[in-house]
Design brief:
Oligomer: single chain
Keywords: Oxidoreductase
CATH class of the largest domain: Alpha Beta
Family: Belongs to the LDH2/MDH2 oxidoreductase family.
InterPro entries: Mal/L-sulf/L-lact_DH-like_ah (IPR043144), Mal/L-sulf/L-lact_DH-like_NADP (IPR043143), Mal/L-sulfo/L-lacto_DH-like_sf (IPR036111), Malate/L-lactate_DH-like (IPR003767)
Protein name: LDH2 family malate/lactate/ureidoglycolate dehydrogenase
Number of domains: 3
CATH superfamily of the largest domain: Malate/L-lactate/L-sulpholactate dehydrogenase, NADPH binding domain
Bound molecules: NADPH dihydro-nicotinamide-adenine-dinucleotide phosphate, pyrrole-2-carboxylate
GO molecular function: oxidoreductase activity
Length: 339
């Protein structure tokens, strides 16, 4: 039987933060990273939990992210476009600087966007979309990654796994949130299959010759496939346009050119859009939030589940029972802290 160890959420946070502080991150960067990584473990999202620490540390050691960066909120007084320059640090710290201003502008104007530039980004998007719904706003979050996905009909990596998340606030219960890679699966899932010595499901990837493969090594050397064929391919392309080119930052192929590898966390920009349902529906019949509940009930009444319900259940369990890690994972955390 696999040996395990159970920690409280706070205890895991303390360990992860200490690892990043030891690696030379300033308190702001270390705290922001520890928050999203521990949230990933807490919500049973292993592909963006503690597994990501290694890559983040590698990126710091490679000099491709500034561990002591202080994000800068740029002067955009009154504009619907809020801008934060991450100054070469991690996106998470920049997001924490920008989100209060984003919420304030969206509340005032009905709609606002937060543009983050010059950041390293490796995390799941739902912590960010939940920060937006926590302000009573609907949110859309997206960013490129690095070229690892072949466009539908193509056979070489070009698009990123380009995550896309949406959130809708709900009263007295967790928000409606979806968050997914626009590839069939996140690249982190392929890496986790490789580490576990498991084959991939059919349809996830092609090898370097463009042939379908279920071998994770061959998939990592070849290309991943977009979800939903041409539809996912188009959404992935939209993300390159909006959260790359439109915000004056790198596209996924440019990120790969810049880094020269997919073993480091990608450097690019991010786009977060916040919308006020009250402002959009003003003057129209019905209450937007109440009408949304009718829709959610109708979905659930068919026996379907809402996205993020698995996550919220995992979160509730972690809050009462703690987070269980394998002995190997615990040893890895100890090793990171020792070096
Ligand atoms: P999944 O396919 O695991 O899940 C996608 C979404 O669908 C989740 O919101 C999930 O909710 C929901 N869902 C899953 N099954 C069902 C179901 N049967 N009914 C209703 N909803 C369902 O996600 P991916 O593997 O595509 O992505 C994982 C993570 O990777 C994301 O958080 C994404 O942000 C991150 N990522 C980050 C990248 C980056 O560059 N920073 C790049 C690519 C991905 P639930 O969680 O509750 O199952
Ligand atoms: O899982 O696809 C992924 C990924 C890429 C960058 C960060 N996460």
């Amino acid at each position: 039987m696999t040996q395990t160890c159970t920690l409280t959420i706070a205890a895991l946070y303390e360990r992860v933060e200490a690892i990043f502080l030891k690696a030379g991150l300033n308190a702001f960067q270390a705290g922001a990273l520890a928050r999203v990584i521990v949230a990933g473990e807490r919500d049973a999202c292993k592909s963006h939990g503690i597994y990501r620490i290694e890559g983040a540390l590698r990126t710091v050691r490679a000099g491709k992210v500034k561990p002591d960066a202080v994000p800068e909120l740029l002067p955009t007084e009154g504009s619907a476009i809020v801008k934060v320059n991450a100054r070469g640090g991690f996106a998470n710290a920049a997001f924490e600087v920008g989100v209060p201003v984003l919420a304030e502008r969206a509340g005032k104007l009905g709609l606002a966007a937060l543009v983050i530039n010059d950041c390293t980004h490796f995390s799941a998007l739902w912590p960010e979309v939940e920060a937006v719904t926590g302000e009573g706003l609907a949110g859309l979050v997206m960013c490129p990654s690095y070229a690892t996905v072949a466009p539908t009909g193509g056979n070489k990596p070009l698009l990123g796994t380009n995550p896309f998340a949406f959130g809708w606030p709900r009263e007295n219960q967790p928000p409606y949130v979806f968050d997914f890679a626009t590839s069939v699966a996140a690249r982190g899932e392929i890496e986790l299959h490789r580490r576990a010595g498991k084959q991939l499901p059919e349809g996830w990837a092609i090898d370097a010759n463009g042939n379908p493969t279920t071998d994770p090594e061959a998939a990592l050397a070849g290309a991943m496939l977009p979800f939903g064929g041409h539809k996912g391919s188009a959404i992935g392309t939209m993300i390159e346009l909006l959260a790359g080119i439109m915000i004056g930052d790198l596209t996924s192929p440019e990120v790969l050119d810049y880094l020269g590898t997919t073993t480091l966390a990608p450097f690019h920009g991010e786009l977060i859009i916040a919308m006020s349902p009250e402002a959009f529906s003003a003057g129209r019949p019905g209450n937007a939030f109440a009408r949304a509940e009718v829709l959610f009930d109708a979905i659930v009444d068919q026996g379907a589940r809402l996205p993020s319900q698995r996550r919220f259940l995992a979160r509730a369990k972690s809050e009462t029972d703690g987070i269980t890690l394998t002995a190997t994972e615990m040893e890895q955390l100890d090793r990171f802290l020792a070096h």
